[in-house]
Amino acid sequence: RVLGNDRTRHSIPFFYEPRVDARIEPMPIAGAERFEPFRYGDHLWSAMSEFVEFKGLARFPDRG
Question: What is the three-class DSSP state of 23?
Answer without folding.
Answer: strand
